[in-house]
Amino acid sequence: MRLVAPRLLAQVTKELLSVWRDPKSRFFLIGPPLIQLFVFSFAATLDVRNVDIGVYNRDSGSRAYELVSRVAAASFVRSLHPVHGRADLRRMIERREVIAVIDIAESFSRDIDSGRAGKAQVILDGRRANSAQIVLGYLNGIATSLGAEFSGSIGASGESAAVRHWFNPNLIYRWFVVPSLGGILLTFITLLITALSIARERELGTFDQLLVSPCTPIEIIVSKMAPALLFGTALGMFMAAAGVFVLAVPFTGSFVLLLVSMLVFILSVVGIGLMISSVCSTQQQAILGAFAIGVPAVLMSGFATPVENMPRVLQILAQAIPLKHYLIILQGSFLKSLPPSEVFSNAWPMVIIAFVTLSAATLFVRGKLQ
Amino acid sequence: MSSQCSSATDAAQSPPLSPWAVEIVDVCKRFGRTEAIRNVSARVLPGKLTGLVGPDGAGKTTLMRLMAALIAPSAGSVSVAGFDSVRDGERIHALAGYMPQRFGLYEDLSAMENLRLYAHLQGLQPNLHRQTFERLLAFTRLEPFTQRLAGRLSGGMKQKLGLACAMMGRPRVLLLDEPSVGVDPVSRHELWEMVRALTGEGMAVVWSTSYLDEAERCDQVLLMNEGRIEYEGPPGELASALEHRSFRLRNPQQDRRLVLSRALDLKSVCDGVIQGNSVRVVLRKDAGDEEIHGLAREVEAQLAPVAPRFEDAFVDLLGGGPSGTSVIAARMTPVRAEGKVAVECRDLTRRFGNFVATDRISFQVRQGEIFGLLGPNGAGKSTTFKMLCGLLKPSSGQAHVMGLDLGTATSQAKSKLGYMAQKFSLYGLLSARQNLEFSAGIYGFTGAAKRERIGEMIEIFQLRKYLGASPNDLPLGFKQRLALACALMHRPPVLFLDEPTSGVDPITRREFWTHINGLVRKGVTVLVTTHFMDEAEYCDRVALMYQAKVIALDTPDGLKRTVAGDGAAEPTMEAAFIRLIQTVDAKNAELHARQAA
Predict the structure, then answer these.
(1) Residue A281: per-residue pLDDT
(2) If you count residue pairs, one on A and one on B, with CB atoms under 8 Å apart, how many are there?
(3) How far apart are the CA of A225 and the nearest CA of chain B, in angstroms?
(4) Would you place residue A1 in the very low, low, confident or very high pLDDT band (cuts 50, 70, 90)?
(5) pLDDT at site B250
(6) What integer pLDDT is reported at residue B362 of this predicted model?
(7) Distance between CA atoms of A222 and A198, rounded to whole angstroms?
(8) What digits encode the pLDDT tens for the residues B45-95?
(9) In principle, which of A59, B336, B404, B459 could form an S-S bond with A64, CB 3.0–4.6 Å?
């Protein structure tokens, strides 16, 4: 089981050439990831803009007027629709004319003036749960600032009621999406390159040729890491640079630490990809395998929903997903200037994943000989 | 009056009566700049078996697809049963059955599901399904395997299933594109008998093949070369023109491979092959027989005229086979004899679950020997082969290459062997030169030694012209040379060839064997599996495997002798093969009967 340099070199060259010489695979390596990065940076936004809101104002006081005019002036609102009665309210929500209706009780102004909390109900369209939740958040902000202002006039401290978002004070969604997208796209590219590599050789019969040669399984696995490691790192760096220089996401962390974690991350994904590839006998199986692993990995990585909110079992399972750890490092490096200790504490699980999966892939390749 | 009426409507529905099943008139077919078919005219008769033969790239498949109305001719016309292939393509699809070379079956569906799918595709009425399936399954004897996935059927069974699917709509014309590639002699024989039965029912069958012994048994032959029809007519007529030009040098006192090489280098000889311990030669047209008499005297062989075969005529028509001297043989340094035995296996057994693929196989291959491994599909020969070159670990028993145990000294043993498979195993995404560099690299060559080896291979196999091209774009002959160059880069003393010439035309096959003969004369040991019985004749010894066991191991002549003596003066290798297997079957049946009793 020695790694003999010339043999390894020949295999690495072969691997790099077989990815790079094919104009189609070269294009798919570069084109779609970059296009996706730019498109999704704009499309995959959770910012809510241009919404229509209904107002069922049963109060004729100045406080209610104040609230309505502030909502009307808010940047996320396109237009306000007056609501006349319950039936009207129901109809507007049902027909999706508005995403939410603010129902202001008759006592709203009176309550605030007499020092109690003014109560307004917000009815949301549950079919658009995500956007509705965000709208509610925005509306709460307005109501709070309104209350704070008024309470300020009667002398209480209003500071604590206002929310301040650290690291991303203006809640610019792109700042969050761009670094994460870099990680997700890298996962898929790496997974596909490696998942196809052994399966393709097996399908075309070249794998037998490789197995009858003196090449060892370790050499085969090491050489198969090369293209993903090289092209993956280049792509990852390029996407990070595009995020900083084109999409204007601040980069506050350490570049060197990010590069090191990127290499570890790619290795761990390469391990998963090669593990898939070593058990598949056709490229079709390999692609299906890559997606069967890749999609849940992204969903459970904490990109869409926080890992902490998942059931306990899934939280434990999420530890085995390299992207989960890498996303923390990515977002931290961009926005939080993540300290080295934090980077390391998120990098070592990836080292373990890489070690386990690459060893498994080597064993599977050797197992195929038996 | 009424009968007139009905005949008039008949005439409106059916085409003008044509005596030909297929008529091809002045057809050309171009793909971009390449002219695949050049001005071809030919006819296929109903109730006859028409063989379509020619070297690789002659245009056989294109002609098949033209007849199946899958592509339109660039010029000229093709009509099937009187229907024009361009105007009435749909009707031709309904009355012709086409079995393509590959991709004919859905490998992930069972045999029965494939039948059902084709029944639907061909618009067979649902109430006829059952009886049609029964008829076809009985005909192809596939009833026991209806639930098996098509991908898991043996090569022969796949072709039978393909045939069944093509016959679904009771076609009047059946077009079979290389149905016998990768099929063992027994299944090939069965397939042939089935098709014979169909022509008996009046069906026209076109059978394209690279087995010339099959072509010889056809009623009619279309011989194609470079897009043209070179001969159309009964095969015997073409062969009879070579009367008095075929000879056999029996039992020469010199190495028969050397004798063949010397014979092929004679100006008067256009083709030659090895047949067991004899060498068969064909003289050029109008050439005298003095040279061959001279050679026979020199090597002390008995020279006897033999009846010409279709294959002789085929090679002669295409300008003769390659010359006898292999450049590799001239350049290769001889392998030093380190031990007498090159490959040895003892009690080699491999089980897959409960299934025993090979059952205590033992044999020895001497250095400098060509050893053939023959047997029907599924007999266990490729399992044996894989264990011998280290692709598969035996369940028990040992395999040695050049005295090294494949189980323990894996890497060293592997560096002693070269391997070339049916699919050539070249990297299509790499250029020819990069393929050579890769092969040199994985056997540990660097720097000057590497450049020297690669340069040598380029020169020996004359690959310079194609260095920048992808192996996929190379002509078949060069692709094969490149694969052989890659396998020989590290000058292995033992060469494993796994069906190296499957689907390869006779001329390219001859060139290949010239190289192999040259290598063997340099001391290289060759292990080969093949379905071509004429290639088995090149072997020094042949092991015939059946039902996981070696049922016979002898020289080709020895094998033929064991089945001789019952009438047939000189059985062919194929006859010997089939007879030996039938003997085992008969013994098994007898045993079963006795047990039952």
Answers:
(1) 82
(2) 86
(3) 17
(4) very low
(5) 86
(6) 92
(7) 12
(8) 888 999 999 887 788 889 999 998 889 999 999 988 888 888 888 888 888
(9) A59
Distance CA B251, CA A156 (A): 119
Residue-wise pLDDT for A228-253, tens only, equals 899 899 989 988 888 888 887 888 88
Substitution target in B415, B438, B482 with the highest count of A β-carbons within 10 Å is: B438
Find the closest chain B residue to A25 by CA distance. B429
Domain ranges in chain A are: 5-44+172-367, 51-161
Domain ranges of chain B: 2-233, 241-325, 341-416+494-505+518-597, 428-491
Nearest CA distance, A26 vs chain B (angstrom): 12
Which DSSP state fits A320?
Answer: T
Does the domain at B2-233 match CATH 1.10.3720.10? Answer given as: no
Which pair of structure tokens corresponds to residue A128? Answer: 């658009």
**For A279-311, what is each residue's pLDDT tens digit?**
888 888 999 999 999 898 888 888 877 777 788
Q: Are B356 and B383 in contact (CB under 8 A)?
A: no
**Does residue B151 sit at the A interface (CB-CB below 8 Å)?**
no
Helix (H) or strand (E) holding B19, with range, is none
Chain centroid offset of residue A1 CA: 40
B417 contacts chain A (CB < 8 A) = yes
* Residues sharing a CB contact under 8 Å with residue A202, sequence separation 6 or more, in sequence order: A280, A281, A282
Asked whether the beta carbons of residue A369 and residue B443 sit closer than 8 angstroms, the reply is: no
Instruction: Measure Cα distances from B488 to A13, B177, B417, B483 in Å.
Output: 21, 33, 9, 9
Cβ <8 Å between A213 and B443: yes
Q: Sign of dihedral through CA atoms B149, B152, B157, B163?
A: positive
β-strand partners of B276 = none
Does the pLDDT value for residue A369 go beyond 60? no
Short-list B550, B551, B542, CA closest to B573: B542
What residues of chain B score a pLDDT lower than 70?
1-17, 102-103, 327-329, 336-339, 565-569
Chain B hits for A14, Cβ within 8 Å: 427, 430, 434, 438, 441
Same fold, B2-233 and B341-416+494-505+518-597: yes
Question: Token pair for residue B186?
Answer: 């027994």
- To the nearest whole Å, the CA of B372 is away from the closest chain A CA by 20
CATH of B241-325, one of 3.40.50.2300, 3.90.550.10, 3.30.70.100, 3.40.50.720: 3.30.70.100
Distant-in-sequence, close-in-space partners of A231: CB < 8 Å, separation ≥ 6: A19, A29, A189, A193
The residue of chain B nearest to residue A17, with distances taken between CA atoms, is: B430
Q: Which CATH architecture has domain A51-161?
A: 3-Layer(aba) Sandwich (3.40)
A303-342 pLDDT per residue, tens: 877 777 788 888 888 888 899 899 888 888 888 778 888 8
Give the number of other CB atoms < 10 A from CB of residue B223.
25
What is the model's pLDDT at position A157? Answer: 30
Residue B469 burial (CB < 10 Å; 0-12/13-18/19+)? middle
* Residue B391 contacts A, CB cutoff 8 Å: yes
Strand B525-529 and strand B494-498: the pairing is parallel
pLDDT, position B309: 87
Q: Is B341-416+494-505+518-597 assigned to CATH 1.10.10.10?
A: no
User: Which of the residues B427, B450, B491 would you substitute to probe the A interface, choosing the one with the greatest number of A C-beta atoms within 10 Å?
Assistant: B427
| Interval A150-193: pLDDT, tens | 433 332 333 323 444 555 555 566 777 888 888 888 998 899 88
CB contact under 8 A, B442 and A7: yes
pLDDT digits (tens, 9 = 90+) for B180-223: 877 888 888 888 888 888 888 888 999 998 888 888 889 999 99
